[in-house]
Amino acid sequence: MSIYRVIDKLETYVREGTWLPFGMRILSQERLVEYIEKLRSTLPDEVGRAKVIATNKDRVIRDAQEKAQQIVTEAASAQAQLVDQTDILRQARTTADVVLREAEERARKIREGADQYAKQVLGEIEARLAGALGSVRKGQETLAPRAATPPAEPLAEGAAKSKRAAFDAQADTSQLESVEVPN
Question: Domain count of the chain?
């Protein structure tokens, strides 16, 4: 499952939570932990892909350097064979220099492109993780006040008070013509 799908599901779940007064929502801790575990399980794939990209970058650079070295070696051996012929020697040196410069330029461009791509991928992963972490922190902040306050009265008394308050609120609501619910 994609990390984006998990984040979308988590966001939908948070938005669909039951509303409480003062803009609070009721969310299942188990469900939130489930989404966090799904996020964790998708992260290694994304991080693994970034490592593969970095590894491929090094391989491409290595290949370009080996090819450049091979070209230089071939130019040097050609130069040694043609020492007596100055025109051919001069041409070989010029060609070797051009080929070496081209190979070095290609290696530099490949390295820059690979670095740019790796930075982009890592930046995208960082943004995704930051968004997911922000969602998790918001969920934790939403749950923190509720979890931090221990019940001051027995459960039966609290339930009775809750029912009375709901009954009173329902009676007040039936007297009003319209009520706006804040989002």
Answer: 1
